[in-house]
Amino acid sequence: MNAVPMDDVRSRPSRVAIVLALASLYLIWGSTYLGIAIGLQGFPPFLLAGLRMGAAGALMYAVLRRRGVPAPTRAQWKNLVPLGLWMVLLSNGLVTWAEIHVSSGLAAVAVASMPIWAALFWMLRGHHPSRGEWAGLAIGFVGIAWLNLGGELRASPLGMLALVVAAAAWAWGSVWSRGRDLPSPFMSAAGQMLCGSAMMLATGLVTGERIHAMPSAAAFGALAYLTVFGSIVGFTAYIWLLDHVRPALATSYAYVNPPIAVLLGVAFAHERFGLHEAGAMAVILVGVALVILGRRKPATDDAAIHE
């Protein structure tokens, strides 16, 4: 993807490059929820997520090492392991598992609450929220409660719990990682994917997940799309944006992805999305916008759960 070169993150970007990178985040990360739903038609959840993240992590690691990027040190691997647990197994893995029970659009709406959880964890660690962040926290948690008290999530308490844990786990990993000894951003992403994918594959095997029949071409296509575009291109675009634009713009995907995911789910998967879910989504996204736009330093630099 020429718009987000991995080896020239310090050059002055063109407006076209920024627009293309943002479009990648909005469209690709918004579409990965539907991709997961299609992939689940041929693969069990943790094996699907583990295969996807393992392949993406291995490809990124190989390319980075070939370009001369140093491998993580032993101390850095010790930090990458818990990040793989929180930001891969307990985030992407649980979102994938939850989509067995809830629609892809609803999963995207629930995951959109991640910046709200991150702001809460920063507050618990001594960060003093601005007025905008306080307002966003209050409004966002009202939206989360609204979403969980009725509609599809109420009929699936396990799916609801998985999505809440997934959003909170990614937020906690983002907060915990600040100031830790970690490799360069792209190598850190590759290492987290490798660690987390091993945990997800092990979880799938221990819980009895097996592939009993040859997955369809659509399921294999979804796996390839999630690996190349969702995990590699999308995350590369996000890291590039963090180096070139203000955090509020880079994290704006958080309130663009859910509507895109909902529209794709309704159009291509015949998912239902009622007034209850639409109202909760609107409230959550208002809270997310206030948290992101009202954020004080240090910026949390949260990434989405890169579906």
Quick structural gist:
This protein has about 300 residues and is mainly alpha-helical. The protein is built from 13 helices and no strands.
Structure, explained:
This protein is mainly α and 307 residues long. The protein has one domain (15-293). The chain is 71% helix and 0% strand. It has 13 helices and no strands. 53% of the residues are buried.
Essential attributes:
13 helices; 307 residues; mainly alpha; disordered N terminus
Share in helix: over 70%
Largest sheet: none
According to DSSP, the number of beta strands is 0
Query: What would you report as the Rg, rounded to the nearest angstrom?
Result: 18 Å
**What is the SS-derived class?**
mainly alpha
The H/E string reads: HHHHHHHHHHHHH
Mean pLDDT: 88
Estimated share of beta-strand residues: under 5%
Topology (SSEs and partners):
Blueprint: H1 15-39, H2 45-66, H3 74-98, H4 104-111, H5 114-124, H6 131-148, H7 151-154, H8 157-177, H9 185-206, H10 217-244, H11 247-250, H12 257-268, H13 275-293
Helix pairs in contact: 1-4, 1-10, 1-12, 2-3, 2-9, 2-10, 3-8, 3-9, 4-12, 5-6, 5-8, 5-13, 6-13
